[in-house]
Amino acid sequence: STIQFNRTHPNASKAATNANMVAAQRTLREIWIRPEVFPIFAAAGAAFGLAGFFIVRQISCSPGYRVTKSGRAEGIAEGAQRIKEGKNWREHWVRRYLRTKVPQIMPGLNDLMSKKQ
Questions:
Q1: Any residues with CB less than 8 A from the CB of 101 and at least 6 apart, and which?
Q2: 0.85 exceeded by pTM
Q3: Taking a C-beta distance cutoff of 8 angstroms, is the pair 80, 88 a contact?
Q4: Measured in whole angstroms, how far is the alpha carbon of residue 87 from the centre of its chain?
C-alpha cells in the first residue's frame, strides 16, 4: 500500500521544489546585506566590541591577572607597587570623570521641571 499525502493544490510539490531552487540560488549577500538586518549587525558589533574591550583590558591591565610566568610565580600581590597598581585599576579615568558629574540623566530638564511657578 502506498501513503498518500494530502495536497491542497495539484502543483503543490512542484511549487515547493521551485521555491527551494530559488532560495538555493540566492547568494549570501542577497540574504544578509539588506537594510532590515543592519540593526542586528549594529547590536552584534557593539556587543562583540565591548566584550573584546573588556577582555583585553582585563588581561593587559588588571593587577590581579598575570600573563607572564614570572608574574604568576610572584604569588599574592601585597607589595606597595602592587597596591598602587590596584588603586590605579579601580580609580580609572571614567570613574574620576563621572565623580564630578551630577548623577542625573537629564539635569537641565529636571531643573526646568522642578522650578516653582
A1: none
A2: no
A3: no
A4: 28
